[in-house]
Amino acid sequence: MTKLEELRTNIDEVDRQIIALLAQRFKYTEEVGIYKANNHLQAQDASRENQQFQKIAQLSEQNGLNPEYASDIYRCLIDIVISRHKELLAAKC
């Protein structure tokens, strides 16, 4: 195995782990969305988002990741979650 193939194999393994963790995360956010819909709560919680982005920046720095990269990725994740929560709220109305 060449160095490039080894690096790509490592990337593939990390991708497998990321997808498994994303699936788990989305399972929990779905439950949050159902809870919000059942309790007539807003789909978006700006205070929680701010806390999340502060935590993400801190974790990024602790792990040697550019915080901007992590924030961009999490902005996408959170936007998808908010969109799903809006769908769940609309279905309850």
UniProtKB/TrEMBL annotation:
Keywords: Coiled coil, Isomerase. Signal peptide: none annotated. SUPFAM superfamilies: Chorismate mutase II. Residues 4-63 form a coiled coil. InterPro entries: Chorismate_II_sf, Chorismate_mutase-related, CM_dom_sf, CM_II_prokaryot. Residues 1-89 form the Chorismate mutase domain. PANTHER family: CHORISMATE MUTASE. This is Chorismate mutase. It comes from Paenibacillus planticolens. The lineage of its organism: Bacteria, Bacillati, Bacillota, Bacilli, Bacillales.
